[in-house]
């Protein structure tokens, strides 16, 4: 699969090599591909994970990679090292991989990635950076958790923002990245242990984003699921009512100014009350947050109304 991705990157850089969208190798000459790979500005991009490729042709390209390294010449039994050979039979061993790839490509969860005709999100982010707008809201509520789609897409967005920050595009236009339900996106990894891929974009932003003009604000109902490395970078905490002992212990560890007796009042906070804890506050400061002008639709179902025998008139 890695060889197929590399070939598809080359196909994107050199469309003349791939009239069908992928590079044909079965019984084909090696010369055009090898010459293209050696070109200045091309070779360095083939192994760059940020270099785009067309995933829709991944299965076809995998089939083209399952060839003998050398073709057979005119003489019987003689090999032609200038050509790839025919099908070596290894594609049959890739059928389970192909099935997983097709499952991801056709999944409704990844429809916004592989089938969308809307403007690219990266272009919208670029337009926001270059404008005078103050807020860009990215909603992931329409993305399912199938194939870890929501976590992967959020991590890709974080990686794109991190790349922009490392290119110093936020130094004159500082931004704050606010991540709601942050416990769903931090400390995550996909795949089995042997080949697990860590989704660490927002962790890296928390650790090194400040020097590039990009800060991060995390909102979560489960502080215990936020990694220690990220919590150690949080300078200020706004803590609402916490009833779980483990959550309160996390707050105590994250803030050297608060001890167990000082955090004992956290379970008694009323709705709308919060405690601000951080380096700028010698002692925890309790505040009352005003009701929003536009209330969010966060109420649960009204069981009394829907389950009552006597319907309200």
Description:
The protein folds into two domains: 104 residues, no CATH class; 175 residues, 3-Layer(aba) Sandwich (Rossmann fold). The protein has a three-stranded antiparallel beta sheet with strand order 7-8-9, with no helix packed on it. 22% of the residues are buried. It is elongated, with a radius of gyration of 27 Å. It contains eleven helices and nine strands. By secondary structure, the protein is an alpha+beta fold.
Secondary-structure topology with pairs:
Blueprint: H1 2-13, H2 31-37, H3 58-65, E1 71-72, E2 79-80, H4 95-105, H5 111-114, H6 121-129, H7 149-166, E3 175-179, E4 188-190, E5 197-199, H8 201-208, E6 214-218, H9 228-231, E7 236-239, H10 245-254, E8 273-278, E9 281-288, H11 303-307
Parallel strand pairs: 3-6
Antiparallel strand pairs: 1-2, 4-5, 7-8, 8-9
Helix pairs in contact: 1-3, 7-8
| Strand and helix order | HHHEEHHHHEEEHEHEHEEH
Number of helices: 11
| Strand residue content | 5-15%
The CATH homologous superfamily name of the largest domain equals P-loop containing nucleotide triphosphate hydrolases
Q: Architecture of the largest domain, according to CATH? A: 3-Layer(aba) Sandwich
The beta-strand count equals: 9
The proportion of residues forming helix, as a percent range, comes to: 25-40%
- Structural class assignment: alpha+beta
Poorly predicted tracts of residues: none
Biggest sheet: strand arrangement:
7-8-9
The geometry reads as: elongated
In the residues, how many domains can be counted?
A: 2
Q: Please write the CATH class name of the largest domain.
A: Alpha Beta
Report the oligomer.
single chain
The major pleated sheet works out as: 3 strands, antiparallel
**Which fold does the CATH topology of the largest domain refer to?**
Rossmann fold
């Amino acid at each position: 699969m890695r060889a197929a991705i590399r070939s598809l990157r080359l196909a994107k850089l050199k469309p003349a090599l791939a009239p069908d969208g992928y590079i044909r190798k079965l019984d084909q000459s090696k010369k055009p591909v090898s010459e293209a790979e050696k070109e200045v500005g091309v070779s360095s991009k083939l192994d760059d994970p940020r270099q785009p490729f067309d995933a829709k042709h991944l299965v076809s390209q995998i089939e083209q990679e399952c060839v003998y390294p050398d073709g057979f010449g005119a003489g019987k039994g003689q090999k032609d090292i200038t050509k790839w050979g025919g099908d070596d039979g290894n594609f049959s061993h890739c059928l389970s991989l192909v099935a997983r790839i097709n499952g991801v490509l056709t999944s409704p969860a990844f429809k916004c990635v592989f089938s969308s005709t809307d403007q690219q999100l990266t272009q919208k982010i670029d337009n926001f950076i270059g404008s005078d707008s103050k807020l860009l809201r990215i909603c992931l509520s329409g993305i399912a958790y199938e194939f870890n789609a929501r976590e992967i897409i959020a991590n890709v967005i974080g990686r794109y923002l991190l790349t922009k920050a490392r290119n110093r595009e936020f130094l004159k236009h500082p931004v704050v990245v606010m991540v709601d339900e942050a416990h769903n996106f931090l400390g995550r990894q996909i795949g089995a242990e042997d080949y697990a891929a860590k989704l660490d974009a927002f962790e890296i932003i928390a650790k090194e984003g400040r020097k590039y003009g990009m800060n991060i604000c995390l909102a979560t109902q489960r502080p215990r699921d936020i990694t220690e490395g990220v919590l150690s970078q949080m300078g200020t905490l706004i803590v609402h009512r916490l009833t779980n002992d483990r959550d309160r212990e996390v707050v105590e560890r994250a803030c050297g100014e608060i001890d167990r007796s000082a955090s004992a009042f956290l379970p008694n906070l009323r709705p709308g009350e919060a405690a601000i804890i951080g380096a700028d506050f010698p002692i925890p400061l309790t505040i009352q947050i005003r009701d929003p002008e536009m209330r969010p639709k966060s109420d649960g179902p009204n069981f009394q109304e829907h389950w009552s025998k006597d319907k309200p008139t």
